[in-house]
């Protein structure tokens, strides 16, 4: 049956009202502030937009000089190389199936492998958050609040948002505050609270030095020398990157 014209028009209005950035299933929209949600949508647009974020497939980066990660956003495949203890994790974060080399030897004991793969999942959750947190302001389990206007330590006028979590991730008791620059709508600073009940942050760090990677703007090689480095984005990568222990050389 052909839909009436007004139905299509109303549908377009609904999509427009969502800002082209619908929340992930489980985002706590009811307890979140509308002002904070609108700012989060501006952040998504400033960093390349929802379509480009969804279409971006392979992301690679180094975390704090400790390890190298490659992530297939479309399938959930992950590769983690840890030179310090000659470990390599090859697994899928959706299915948790995979293989592990620990201290130079492949782990074949199923219980030991399961434990190591869970460790790999925790590494990926932590390290990817340091790379793509601004794209996850409306993620599953997140409650987003508008706190205040406040300049960053670098002097940028900003809106400060608060993220709290419920039943997601490895440490749902954490809390974050993010400073969104009023002029360009990019996150420029963030604060970490180990417990949501804390008034004082455990750390406040810049989120700066944005550069284009593929169709996205990402923050790497930050001014405090922390966080992700050597960021790369690929449309295609050989399957061997996620299935062979040998260093892929990408």
Q: Count the strands?
A: 14
Structural category: alpha+beta
Helix-residue proportion? 10-25%
Instruction: Detail the poorly predicted runs.
Output: 1-18
The sequence of SSEs as H and E is HHHEEEEEEHEEEEEEEEH
The largest sheet is:
7 strands, antiparallel
Distance between the termini: 51 Å
Mean pLDDT: 92
Give the DSSP E fraction (strand runs of 2 or more residues): 25-35%
Cα radius of gyration in angstroms: 20 Å
Shape: globular
Strand order of the main beta sheet, please?
Answer: 6-5-4-3-2-1-14
The number of helical elements comes to 5
Structure description:
This protein has 250 residues and is of the alpha+beta class. The chain has a domain at 27-63 and 124-243. Helix content is 24%, strand content 32%. It contains five helices and 14 strands. It has helices spanning 5-17, 34-46, 50-55, 110-132, 240-243; strands at 58-63, 67-72, 77-82, 87-92, 98-102, 105-106, 142-149, 158-165, 175-181, 187-193, 203-206, 210-213, 216-219, 228-234. It has a seven-stranded antiparallel β-sheet. A hairpin with a 5-residue loop joins strand 4 and strand 5 (98-102). The longest helix is centred in the middle third of the chain and has 23 residues, at 110-132. The chain starts with a helix and ends in a 7-residue tail after the last helix.
